[in-house]
Amino acid sequence: MTASRKLAVFRLPPLPTIGEIIRLYNLRAEKQLSQNFLLDMRLTDKIVRQAGGLSNAHVCEVGPGPGGITRSILSAGAADLLVVEKDTRFIPGLQLLAEAAPGKVRIVHGDILTYKMERGFPQKLARKWDDEPPDVHIIGNLPFSVSTPLIIKWLENISNRDGPFVYGRTRLTLTFQKEVAEESAALSAPVRSAGRRRTFLACWVFCNFKHCFSFPPIIAFLLQSEVDVGVVHFTPLVQPQIGQPFKLVEKVVRNVFQFRRKHCRRGIEMLFPEARRLELSEQMLRTADVDPTLRPTELSIPHFRNLSDAYSKLCSDNPGLLAYDFRDELRKKRRSRCIKEEEEELKLK
Ligand code: SAM
């Protein structure tokens, strides 16, 4: 067993170090793009190990930059590595790496937020949703400003079983700001975790979510980053904890968290048009059997499940409700108030 695992691990030929690649191609980290590079191969190996065994796996690395994590993925024995990098400056360094691992690395110069991952790997890798996860992994150390919108997009993909999840329950290993990763892990505690974040609440609904470890920037980065980094591993759940579509769950969670310090009733009211706000929010809370005086941070996933189910029922009874956004109503009100004031002014002239 050990021998076969050893055989599968790939040994890259001697290459310039990541530091040398950075100097060779003049890859200055752009602070405004939050670019920080991992230089310590022991650390990149440790991050990659959190994905599980990669021997002969198909991997997509998001934002490879100068290629530290990329090397660790190859050394772990991945058969096929697709890298998606937005910044053109990194492409020559990645090509050097691709030449060192013939037939293993595919380079896409593009934006991971728009890249169509459903075309990234052969369809034959696909597994049924309730089977074991496929041998397809996503790994990445992206700027935090990208990883949050990305995980929201991927949660929706999980809910729809499209994007990277056409292959089944594709596993993700990503970095986040340490405090976000650690607080989010605390979501598994039943209630009252003050620091819970709404994005990660949605993660818990759709994924098995593990905070693997954290590290301070000082040991890892070329450019001094202010924040510690947490490595998080996600496996989509066979059965999400809430049986409603991501968009609906996200809308309920987002509105409830609108007023973090107020009673949850306040945020729930915002799901409904002003004319029927009190009536429908009371009906939703009653059907969900949720105490309206609980704070958003005191609500557990079963509370959100009941709220989402109750809201879904109201949406089927009231066509157009799902598309309602209180901000549109506010904007319209403001606009008509401005028009009225202008008309009054014209009358006075
Ligand atoms: N993974 C490398 C490492 O750990 O050393 C680089 C990390 S750096 C924090 C983030 C990398 O993601 C940069 O190479 C950056 O150009 C790339 N990146 C940022 N936004 C991206 C996007 N939307 N799509 C693809 N790559 C992106």
Automatic annotation (TrEMBL):
One of its GO terms (molecular function) is RNA binding. InterPro entries: KsgA/Erm, rRNA_Ade_diMease-like_C, rRNA_Ade_methylase_Trfase_N, SAM-dependent_MTases_sf. Its EC number is 2.1.1.-. S-adenosyl-L-methionine binds at N36, L38, G63, E85, D111, N141. It is found in: Mitochondrion. One of its GO terms (biological process) is rRNA methylation. Residues 43-238 form the Ribosomal RNA adenine methylase transferase N-terminal domain. GO terms for cellular component: mitochondrial matrix. Keywords: DNA-binding, Methyltransferase, Mitochondrion, RNA-binding, rRNA processing, S-adenosyl-L-methionine, Transcription, Transcription regulation, Transferase, Transit peptide. Its main location: mitochondrion. SUPFAM superfamilies: S-adenosyl-L-methionine-dependent methyltransferases (SSF53335). PROSITE patterns: SAM_RNA_A_N6_MT. Belongs to the class I-like SAM-binding methyltransferase superfamily. rRNA adenine N(6)-methyltransferase family. KsgA subfamily. This is rRNA adenine N(6)-methyltransferase. It comes from Lepisosteus oculatus (Spotted gar).
